[in-house]
Structures are given as structure tokens and as C-alpha cells.
Amino acid sequence: MIHGLSQVSTLAQAGAPTTTAPAxxxxxxxxxxxxxxxxxxxxxxxxxGMFSRGDALAQPEHVIEHLQAxxxxxxxVFVIVGVLCMFNGYKFYKLATISIALLLGMFAGYWFGxxxxxxxxxxxxxxxxxxxxxxxxxxYAVSVFGGLAGAFVGANLWAGMAHAVNKIxxxxxQVRSIVPAEEYWLGALLGLLICGMLAFILFxxxxxxxxxxxxxxxxxxxxxxxxxxFEPWRQTVSDGLTSSQLVIPLLVFVxxxxxxxxxxxxxxxxxxxxxxxxx
Length: 279
Known about the structure:
Blueprint: H1 2-25, H2 31-50, H3 60-67, H4 72-88, H5 93-116, H6 119-134, H7 138-169, H8 184-201, H9 203-228, H10 231-241, H11 247-267
């Protein structure tokens, strides 16, 4: 009887691995679609969360938190697309305008669709709608994006400069708030008015400006995400970005100014405002 029990135990031990191995090695049929859906959701949530504030660039902890969740693949895509847009946006301004309208519609639709439980459907519908409207209304779309680019620059420069000025004024140990950083909407309003009005007068300049600003923002977010993805550099990069609220705005807007100048030179007289860029 003992011999029989030992045989049963031996057979059970021998058969145990064969019954559990397939479950660990054979992936489920829905693994790849689920992974793609997670990556897509992560992309939307990261970008929408990063720019949920008007002064997003002047909030380094907020930016770092979302950039670390972006991923290296999306970071590389950001760098390539951003550099092309920053230095050559005037050459394909129609495509850039329609693409920005599509992305803005998709992110706005994703945020709104999340409230009603259908983020991807609403994002797709609203994105296609805005992209379609941008094509026949190209001049007005460029003017709107030029004004929004000015508002973006104004809000973040106001917030970054306000923090820097207040920090300098408080060096003696007494906290002073000379420029209210939370009133960044004043800088946004000023940038919107100036750039929005210039867009109707200098069409080419508006094209160059919004492609340079948007391209520089996208490219720099990609570069920072790549740097933060490497463990040996992560803490050093984070410390450098959080040293001042003015660091990230400078990293974005200085390349944007360089891109604007180079695009102006290469396009041959954008500042003069003659006509529209070549199709």
C-alpha cells in the first residue's frame, strides 16, 4: 500500500509541471491589442495632463512627472516631428496647420469623451471635424494658432519671470511677491492680442511663429523625456530642471526664436509679410 502511494505521489510530481507550463508560456489572444490600447491611452493622458495648465512649462515638477511616463518611443517621435516643424514648418504650413487642428481636436475630445465614457470616439470625431474645417478656413486657422502660440509664450514667460523676480527679491530671507505668478493669464492675454492681430497683417510671420513655437515645444519635450528615461542622468536632469521655474521656458523658447529666425531667412522675407508661403 505504501508502495502504491509513493507511485501516485511520483506521478503527481512528474505531471505537475506539464499542466502549469502552457499557461505561463502561451500568451493570451488579446495581449497585443491590450498593449497598444494601453500605450495609446498613456500617450493621450500624458500629453493632456502635461498641458492641462496654461503655465505648464513654468511648473517643472509637473512636467517631469508626465515626461517620465511618456516612454522612449514617443520621445523619439516628438524629437523628429518637432525639429522638422521648427526649422521647416513654413514649407508645409498647410499640413502643419491641419495636423495641429487634428491633434487639438483629439486631445480636447479625449478629455471631454472621458467624462461620458467614450474618449476615443469623441476624440476621433472632434479631431477629424477640426482638421476638415481648418482646410477651407486656412487663413483663419493660421491666425487662431498664431494667437494661441502667443498666448502660450506669454503665459509661460510671465510665470517663469515672476518666479525668478520674486526669488531674487526674497534673497534676504523675507518672502516678497513683486510679480504675481498666478496671474499668468495676463501674459497669455497680452500674447494672444499681439500675435492674434499680427496674424491678420503678417500672414507669413504668423505661420513661422506658430510652427517654430509648436515645433520647439514638441522637440524639447521629446529631448527631456529621453534624458529622463536614462537612470544615470535622471536625477541630474531633474535637479537642473527644478532649480528654477524659468529653466524649461528658456529651453523651449530660445530654440523657438532660433527656428523663427532661420525660417525667416530661408523663406526669403517673411518679416516683410508679402503674400503667403509657397504651397
